[in-house]
Write a structure and sequence with these properties.
By secondary structure, the chain is of the alpha/beta class. It has helices spanning 11-23, 34-43, 60-70, 87-96, 108-124, and strands at residues 3-7, 27-31, 48-52, 78-82, 100-103. It has a 5-stranded parallel sheet with strand order 2-1-3-4-5, with helices on both faces. The modification 4-aspartylphosphate is found at residue 52.
Length: 125
């Protein structure tokens, strides 16, 4: 089963997105902040990461940078999942190493399309 790491500090959003992902057949690991995400990636490599940007402890931008720096050869796709949806925010997320950007509120059809596209790209490599 394909595991997605969901990094989200808001309990309600984390629960909703987790349920939707499981409904699509994914296993879901969760982290409450960027620091937990970095540690989770060091322990087990998820197939994909959904990364909130604005979080306590360590924000999603810095967490993505640290995940990328820890193992540059391992290219886990990261989707920035954020309430910040201005063009500069998307550019900042992609500059940090995010592969895609998805604004909140979540459009699950579009999110699942992004996930499918990114997982297809990584399995083809």
């Amino acid at each position: 089963m394909t595991t997605i790491l969901l990094v989200e500090d808001n309990h309600d959003i984390r629960d909703l997105v987790s349920r939707k992902l499981r409904g699509q057949g994914f296993a879901v690991a969760t982290a409450n902040n960027g620091l937990e995400a970095v540690l989770a990636c060091a322990q087990t490599a998820p197939a994909l990461i959904l990364m909130d940007i604005n979080m306590p402890e360590l924000d999603g931008i810095e967490a993505t940078i640290q995940i990328r720096a820890a193992d540059p050869e391992q290219r886990i796709p990261v989707i920035a999942l954020t309430a910040y949806a201005l063009p500069d925010d998307e550019e900042r997320a992609k500059a940090a190493g995010c592969d895609a950007f998805h604004p909140k509120p979540v459009d699950f059809n579009k999110l699942f399309d992004q996930i499918t596209s990114l997982l297809g790209e990584t399995s083809a490599s």
